[in-house]
Structures are given as structure tokens and as C-alpha cells.
Amino acid sequence: MAKWIWYPFDYEVYHSLKLHARREEYGYRRPCCWRQDDCWHDVVFRKTAVLAGERKVRFCANGEGHLVIDGQRLPYGEYVLGPGKHELEALVCKLDGLPCAYADGGEASTDESWEATCLDGRWHPAGCSDFYREPEDNPEVFPFAYEPIPPVSAEEINGGVLYDFGKETFARIAAKCGGVPAALSYGESREEALDHANSIVRDRMEAGEERLLPPRALRWLFVTGPRENFSFSAEYEYLPLEYRGAFRCSDEKLNRIWDTCAYTFHLNSREFFLDGIKRDRWVWSGDAYQSYLVNNYLFRDGGLTRRTIAALRGKEPFTRHINTILDYSLYWVLSIGEYYADTGDAGFVRSLWEKMVSLMEFCLSRTDKDGFATEHPGDWVFIDWAPLDKEYAACAEQMLLAAALETMADCAQLAGADGQGYRQKAAALREKIAEKFWDEEKGAYIDSFASGKRLVTRHTNLFALRYGFAEGKKREKILRNVLQNDAVEPITTPYFKFYELEAWCEMGELDFVRREILSYWGGMLDLGATSVWETFDPRESGAEHYAMYGDKFGKSLCHAWGASPVYLLGKYFLGVKPASGAWETFTVEPGLGGLEWMEGTVPTPRGDVKVRCRGKIAEAAAPFPSGTLVWGGKSVPIPAGETVFLEAE
Amino acid sequence: MAKWIWYPFDYEVYHSLKLHARREEYGYRRPCCWRQDDCWHDVVFRKTAVLAGERKVRFCANGEGHLVIDGQRLPYGEYVLGPGKHELEALVCKLDGLPCAYADGGEASTDESWEATCLDGRWHPAGCSDFYREPEDNPEVFPFAYEPIPPVSAEEINGGVLYDFGKETFARIAAKCGGVPAALSYGESREEALDHANSIVRDRMEAGEERLLPPRALRWLFVTGPRENFSFSAEYEYLPLEYRGAFRCSDEKLNRIWDTCAYTFHLNSREFFLDGIKRDRWVWSGDAYQSYLVNNYLFRDGGLTRRTIAALRGKEPFTRHINTILDYSLYWVLSIGEYYADTGDAGFVRSLWEKMVSLMEFCLSRTDKDGFATEHPGDWVFIDWAPLDKEYAACAEQMLLAAALETMADCAQLAGADGQGYRQKAAALREKIAEKFWDEEKGAYIDSFASGKRLVTRHTNLFALRYGFAEGKKREKILRNVLQNDAVEPITTPYFKFYELEAWCEMGELDFVRREILSYWGGMLDLGATSVWETFDPRESGAEHYAMYGDKFGKSLCHAWGASPVYLLGKYFLGVKPASGAWETFTVEPGLGGLEWMEGTVPTPRGDVKVRCRGKIAEAAAPFPSGTLVWGGKSVPIPAGETVFLEAE
Fold this sequence. Notes:
Largest sheet of chain A: 8 strands, antiparallel
Oligomer: homodimer
Organism (chains A, B): Candidatus Merdivicinus excrementipullorum
CATH architecture of the largest domain in chain A: Alpha/alpha barrel
Protein name (chains A, B): Alpha-rhamnosidase
Shape of chain A: globular
Strand content of chain A: 25-35%
Distance between the termini of chain A: 55 Å
Radius of gyration of chain A: 27 Å
CATH class of the largest domain in chain A: Mainly Alpha
Pfam families (chains A, B): Bac_rhamnosid-like_N (PF21209), Bac_rhamnosid6H (PF17389)
Number of helices of chain A: 14
InterPro entries (chains A, B): 6-hairpin_glycosidase_sf (IPR008928), 6hp_glycosidase-like_sf (IPR012341), Bac_rhamnosid6H (IPR035396), Rhamnosid-like_N_bacteroidetes (IPR048932)
CATH topology of the largest domain in chain A: Glycosyltransferase
Number of domains of chain A: 5
């Protein structure tokens, strides 16, 4: 089966460039605030093909150029090649797009067995995707699907018409304007749609104009003028993804939360994992790092995770942190290690290895004599929107750096490189972190030792738990002195709530987590949310909920980082987790956390695992072996294709 | 005066990308064989403008984005700014082109005082050009001029019509095809135009089609079918450049040679200095290095030299030699030093300094313990199309490297960097070159010490003369044992003939050089050449002259590297040369070299110098001071604006 081929990861770079230019605000485009790379525009592909028989081969190019077949330069077209060995080369040049080649003909067909070069003297395995298998396919067009989505109501108000699509969606509108020009405002909230001057996304149609408007986030659409002046049809634009993960339980609200999280996550799962579909419509490494985990418990679409990782990294030279943020560069490294642990896909690690090395070189070039990553001009030490003490060297960053160095050491082996240097740096850094940041008196890690404030935050100590800095007594102290200590400032963003609830789950506090989810996510649903918001503060009321960053409707009401319940309910309630690399073994250790019953599915790289619990009985099934059901102090193997039961005492 | 601004050197990168994709061959595009970079597509410009009064400022963008004026985000448009300080930012995103900004309004106007960033955290002075001063100008369009150029004759032959434009030209053709499809063949030679199957550039018009064909090199155009089936008009496309240099003498043939060289050079002086207008239509650093010198004695268009230098270097990371050729990387460094010596333009050096450093780091990473640049996989050690001995380390490359290291040391000072390391490396390398490559017995430098062949070529010894490896007795020995030694293989390319004739000129052998020019260049004119060919071998006949690289009409018949007589006649016959940096002082030391009389003009950065010689009398004039006329053993200062005479004894 032939596939269109391109320079490795240039598909991601090209679509990322386009994506990051699409954000709109008050009628103008708001370009992205970090460096945007473009694909190479002049690429050569090659393969030594050995044909078992005579083959008619059709060569196509997205761009201009020529072929070299057995040393002879020829235009693109169809050629009959005799049996035996042939040296094939396809040169493609596309100045304003993504140069790609396609050959369809037995062993000469284009796929990942071809190599590509940007003419820098080096060859790499070509990039390709199952999306593009036909000669008429165009890899510059992302394969979104479209479905008609009519509004559920129309209300004549404020000299115009307010259309309600019933829930948050992402749609392109084919519009036709009558004799009066029309102003359009898109609203994630009703208030936003009705407030043209403050609506983030808006448009204008001239009298008599007919136009397909670009796809945008909305629930409400307000159009000025009489209803008969403006006619339109809307189409939902989405990436067709299979909902492999599922969750149902005795609490109807929790079911609605899971559904809303899954839908929010789907809306943000496009070329790459977005932060939000209205704002920023960009790819942020910290947000994406959590999306990879949610993805594993919902779609398990490996392509989406790999595309996002590749797009975030962009091209050489690496001269600034991913998204300009130190922690986001480090998450990027961690995400590759976690992706490998989850899938065993060493090829992907190898294909990115050089980019991992140059990124880590950049990070290490900004460390001090203790190995601490310190802030440099132009760097953003983020961690979270919270009053952390980041002076000189933030503890949370050092923990990420140590873990990232360990990932480098692990991945070096896969890439055939020597990772000892990374391993030693990581070990030394772990010692220094313990020495400088652990406060025995407070029984917790402090944010910074340089300021003298010795501030203790949940953030830093959550990372201590997550990245192996809290073994034995330290762990107990952190739980008591930080997590269970109301005097320590609470987490306020769903972004870090992800890590906090994950930590509570790890401690087995499922009942607490269930109540947290019902309160925080349930609170949004009670206010009519049909997708999860970027932030939620129950103390606010009305349109106060929609303001952010100084804009009246600046808040994203469909933000991927709020989808964590899908991950938490799948991994800790249904309890399906890998027990060794690439799910070679796995456990199902369900926890009802106060629910009467629950049932659901967790997708794994080896197949879907089904779990059902009610009262004292748990059952599990998987189409592959090596699983163990753990329940009520007992455990039992899960044979492939069979359903096993356990009953607690 | 406002100018459009862009990220520094992105104008050059963008036009270079387009240029290098235009080469055609047998009906298909032949993409360039080295890495092609693209401009950044997402750029921010800024300036702190202090307005003396209220200003109406019109902001425009080539692309999409927005402004930030004093912290407030606003769409592009016209704004009235009050007197005083304003923080101005313009964000521009253009995915398929060159993002540019324009502001027109007093002290807020865009020009080189604005800064630009590609969002990598660093700001640089913005790029701009006098070409683009009006809001309706588009920096994506190169400002070529067009003039109607009708064919001088039409001949019905071979079932079609052969149009002759009278001389080599570069033209776009607006064509209209009648009821019969037509095949077009472009010919730099009559033979090529008449041989559709082998003509390098060809096209096809469908019945009834009307089309503006892309500009191409040609003298002859052959169109199949009856004359009335095909109508067209042609326009000469060129960069309007002033012919500041001039040369006339008592030898009419030499005058025609100068004219033909100047015209050939003009045809190749476009966005950048091309090698040839039909083939390759690319920018090669070795060819360009000579073009900078010719330019100094003809157009003295500094913009063209700077654009070419910037385009050749492209973007980071530097992972392969310029044009893939080791010597071409080194010429690039040398060209910056020579440009500075000629103009005193330190700003240009500073703007490229980081790129010089990374290029030199790359070169040095490929040197051995003696400091010799050796060949690495993917590198091309070229020097010339000649049977040189390049085993392990070619002497000519080491000489270029030593000179390039000295240029680095000189330029470091201008950039405020420490150049001592380069200086030391250069000195050590010079010693090693003398030790390993000077053959006292042969009284010459050998090409390579590794092969044991101890081959002596003109090339290596010409470089010894040119780059200061032949002082005193060594120089005399090289002249006797190599240059004046018929047993040493002759130079066969006009490319290296440049350096050979320059060396003869430096020795004062003008009569010999005149006869060489008349024989070699005159030989082409005798065969009807209207532009200088890529190579010329008088032993060939007829269409043999047009073949190259295995193609029947593969030779370029309009090749810039053949324009050296313009440089040689200006610098050594008219004798106008700088005596110190940036022409602060200069000499006019004419030499008739066997001519009865000559007169001409040499453009300098300070103004045009006029020279006239007849028999024993020489006269010179310049509109600026500090010149010296040297003639017949005497010398006299040239006061500004006066003509001085000297008569030889």
C-alpha cells in the first residue's frame, strides 16, 4: 500500500505553522508568540527498490521537480520498470507548501522504507501517514470530517438573531447575506455572542456576500439585522476518533462529567492537542503533557500524541524553550520517555533522539555549578498560575530536570548512544535537590532556597511525589504537612488539580477525589457548561466566569486540561494500569470510591480492557493475556478473552 | 522616508528560495541541490518612537496580525499619536511569503531603526531596502524592469518559425496560440532552438491558449506550426543598474570584449549574482566571489553584493558547506573581509558576525591536528574542474582557510569580539602549510603531501600568490617554475583564468594579458558569441561548443565568471586601485599593455575616477581627494575635481 511521503516531521511542522496562525481576536489575527518553523521546501526522496517482477509505477509529486531512475533524469509520470534492482530518486520543490512524493507500484511504492533529505547531506526515513494513501490525497489538507449541525433555536433580540447550537461546538458556517450588511459574533457564552464589541471572535458580511467562513469555536451565534437577511448552514468540523474508553456509574452527574470531559477533549483533539478551541488555539507542551495521559484512557490515538510531540519541538536550532517555558521543554523530554514506556515504540524515540540531545544541551547550558536550571533572560519559569517562590532556582524545575535527565539516559540506550553522562548528572542533581530544597523542620520541599522565604507549596511537593523525590518518611511528611494541610495555599487551576487529584488517587483516596470531581466539575455543569472551562471559581457569578487576561470574554470555555476525570476515572476507579513496559503485564485494581457500581473500558496498546464493579464484586476481561485483577485483598490472573470475577470478603 | 521592513536578511532568503526553484530542464523543474532555507513566517517588529509632534501614522502589513501601541492591541490601520514617547509593536504572520510591516508617519516610520524578532527571544535591526518605500510596494516582488524586445528576424524552417532576438537576452513572452498546439524551444544557440528534443528550456501552448510565459534565457525562439498560428510579444527583464564603469581603447575588438563582458555580467546581475542565466540560474559562492570584484569595476552596486552574501549563507544551523563546497564556505568569509576593506561598512560585518562564527566553527570542526581542513563525507573539495591532487588535505584549501581565519580575526574586532584565537590558528596554519606543502626542490607548492605524487599545479600556486604565501624568493620561484612553465598543465576554465590573469597583471605583464584576452574572449566573439560562454575550447567546432555535462546544449552561453576583463581592464590597465581601506587613499597607475590609447571610468565608494592614456601621456581625475597618479616612474597627487597629467620620459 503506497502512502504519500515527506521529510520526517515536516507534516507536523507545516500543519503547526498553519494552526498557530489561525487565532483570532476582535477581528484581527493574533500570531503565536513563540518561534514558528516551516517545513523544508526542497526535498529529495530515494529508495533502492528490488522488484520481483515488471511493475508499472505511477510517480506523483505535490510540488515541482523530477525523478532520477537508475541515474536518468525524467519528469514525473508513469514508467514501467523491469524486475530487479532500481535506484529511485524523487526531487520535489514546493515553495508555499509541503513537498511530498507518491509512487504506486509494488515494491517501488512510497512508504516509510523510502529515505528523505533536505539536501544537508543526511538521509532519514521518510515521514508518512495512513491518512494519505491515494494519489489524489493532499497532505497539505488535514483530514477533518464534517457534519451538518443546525442551531437548536433562534431568538430575535437586540436588533438581530441569536442562534443557539445547544452545546459548545466547532463549526464552519456557509453564509449568505441579503441586502443589509451583517455583523456576526461568536459566543462560547450567550453573553459573549450578544456583546459584539467584546466578543473575541467576530466577522462581518457585506450586503449580497456569500462566503464559507473559517471554522470557529462557538455555542451561540449572533447576527445583526432581520432574520430573513441572513441565511446559513453550519458544519461541525472534527477529527474522527473512536471513543475506545468508556465509563458509566451509579452517579448520573459523574456520568455527565465524564461525557463532558470526553467531548471537551475531543473538540481539542485535532491536528495536535490544543489548549482550547477558542483561545489560544495553540499547542502548549504543559497542556499537551496531560493530554497524552487523557488520550491513553479515551482514544488511545498514538498518531495524535506523536504529531503533537513532533510539532512542539519544531526544527533546529533549538535556541529557546518550547513555548518559551523551561518546564515545557522538560515535559517534552518526559513525554517521550512516558510514550515509550506506554507503547514500546523505540523507532519514534530514535527519530527524535538528535532533537532531544540538542534540547537538553540547551537546558544544560543554563545550569549552575550545582546543576540547577536557573532562569535566563527570555526564559519563562512557569510551573502554574500561582504565587510560587521561583527566585534563582525553582525546586519544581529541578525535579523535572532530574527526571528529564533520567529519560535522556533511558532513551540514549534505544538510540544506541551513551547515556551515562545524563545518568550521572541526574543522580548528582537528585542529591543536590535533597540537600538544598528539603526542609526537615517543615517536613516538606521548599520552592526556593535563595529568597530566604522557605515557602512550601502544593506544586513543588506534588512534583516530589510524582517524580520520585518522596520515598518512605518524606512521603508521609509531605502528605501530612502539605497535601492534608489546609494552611498550605490551595491549587486553583484545573491544570495543577490534575496532578493533585492524581496524587490523592495514588494514595487511594478515591472517595475524596470523587467528591472533588463532583464539586468542581459538577459546579460548572450546574452553571450550564457543555464543555469544561479553563478555570472555575465557584465564588464568581454570572458573566464574571467568562472574563480572563483582562478581556471580558477572554476565558476559554472549552479547555483540554479540564478533561482529567477521564484519566482519573479510567486509571484509578476502573483501575487499569500497566504493570511493566508497553503493557506487557497489567493490573486491574478497581476502586468504587463511594459509587454503588461502575463499568467501563480502558484502551491499551494490546486491546481494550473491560471492567465492571458492583458492591463487593469486580469483574474484568481483556482480549490479551498477562493481566491481574486485584480486588478485596485478592488477586487473580485475567486469561485472554475470558471474564474473571472476584468478590471481596 | 518610510521603508517596508522585514526580519534581517529574510528578504534575501525568501528571494533566494524562489530563485533556486526556477531552473528548468527538458520541460520539468530542476530543484537546487543544496539546502534551501525559507524566511520566518511569524515576525514581530518594534520601536520606541519619540514624536516631536502629533503624527498621523498609517500602519500596513504584508500578512496578517495586529499592532500593539503603548500596550494596547489594535488592528492595522491609521492612528493619530500624540507627541512624546510611544512603544510600537507590529506583529505580522505570512505563511506563504515574506512578512513585512510598514508605518508612514514622521518619527514612527518604519526603517532600519526598528527592530525585528522571529520570537526566539532576540531582537535585531530590521532589514529594509530603498526598493520598497511606498505602502503599495510589495517586497515579495523583485523590482525588475521590463522593455519590449522584438525579434530582429523570423525564418520559416523545419515546419515552424525561428525567431532571432539578435543577441543573448532574458525575456518573458506573452504568447497567444491559434488553432494548432505549438511547441516552443528556447535557444542560446540557433542549433539549440531548432532541436526541440535537446533544447534545455522548452514549453508548450495548447490550441487557443493565451499565456504570459516565465522569463527565460534565449537568443533564438523556435515555434512549431505556421507563423500565423502563434503571435507573441517579448519583454526584456532586467535589474536597472547604472554602468558606472567604462572602458574604451584603440583596439576595437577589446572594446567589443569589454561590452560583451559587461552585458553578460548585467544579465547575471539580478536578485543576486547568478552563475548563468540559463544554467544553473543558481548562486554559487565561488562564482559570486569573482562577481563582487567585477561589480566593483562596473556597477559598484553594494546592495547586490550584500544581497548575494546574505543569500549564500542562509539560516542556522550551518550543517553543510555553502553550495556543499568547502572552498565556497571559505570564499564566503573572505568576501566579507574584502567587502569591508573596500567599503568600510562595519555594520554589514556586525550583522553577519554570528553567522560567520558558526560557519567557521563548522569548518574548524573538520580540521585535523595540524589544523588542515580535510574532506568529510558530504563535503565537496572543488577548487576547479581540473585534475588536482586533493588527497587528504588540498593545499589550496588550507591557504583559503588561513586567509579566512585572518578575516575572522579582523572582523571580530569590528563585532566587538575577541579574534585572538583565530589569529593564532591562522599563524599556526601558515607555518604548517609552509612545512608540509612547500617543495624546495620543485620551487613550488605541491597540491597534496599525502598521495606522494607531489603534483605541482597552477591553481595551488596562484592561491599562494593571491593569499600571501609567496613572499620574496618563493614568489620568484613560483613565477619561474609554475606560471612561466609550459610543462605545468594550463588553466582551462575562465573561472581560474580570472586568478591567472590577475596574477599576470600583478606582475605587470599587461601586454601578455591583453593578448590572452584577445585570443580567448576574441575567439568566442569570432564564433558569433554575444555573451561570454561558460567554457571555450578553440579546438572544438560547431555545436561541439554547446555541449556540457552530458547534455547536447548543456553549456551556459552567458556565464558571469567570464566577465573578468571588466575587472582586469579597470584595475590593472586603467590602474585604479585602493591604497588603503575603504579607498581612503587610492592610486591610479595605468598601463597601456600595448594599446595606443585608452580611456575609462572606475567607480569607487567615494566617486568615479576617470583615466585617459595615450602614448606617453596619462591623465586622471576624481571628484574626491587622496589619489595619486603613478606613470612613467613619476607620481603626482590628484586634487579633488581637477584633472592631472603626467608624461613619461
